[in-house]
Amino acid sequence: MGGKFSCLKRTPLRVSRSPVFQTRLFGLEGSGKRSIIAFLKHGVVAYNNVYDEANSNMHWITHNKVRMLFWVSVNAVDKDALTESTGVRALIYVVDGSSPESIAQSRDHLAQQLENVNDTPHLLIFLNKCDKPSFAFLEEAHYALGLDNITDRHVRIYSTSAITGEGIREGIEWLCSKFYVNRGSYIPRKGGSRL
């Protein structure tokens, strides 16, 4: 008897949006930004058919139940890119670790770009191409990039390889652990060491 009326009962429509963790990924040309994005999206090496999908500037990636929006800059964090992606919570800088010249260029480039960005408290550096024989040690790259001079944000450097996936997920894990969700947005955690 109650079946007729129970099907007419209106249920309130609740749309619960999960928060989005926005991240800016940038670096010099040839550092492996697109390959890292392709690995995070597909979990495989960036072959030609996968690489074509990674040529856009905006990528949705889910990592351990965290919805992430990656804004990929071609060379720099320019002013137009900053205005299009307000709400960016962290920066990821990709460095070609197999070339000493690239590490030297990246130091100046990183310092120049960090002057333009003041509101992101966390910087993750991927020292990419660790599978190559000419790869630099983390301590050497840390010193060569001048990371001790960055005092206004948390900095972490990981040796990575977009071919094997080594270090990429660990770096994203560290970045996600530095934030918590409060009222539908990601808030940086307070306290702790700079590293």
UniProtKB/TrEMBL annotation:
Keyword Nucleotide-binding: yes
Keywords of this entry: GTP-binding, Nucleotide-binding
Positions contributing to GTP binding: 128-131
Protein name per Swiss-Prot or TrEMBL: ADP-ribosylation factor
GO MF entry, a single one: GTPase activity
Regions that span the bilayer: none
Annotated organism of origin: Babesia gibsoni
Stored Pfam families: Arf
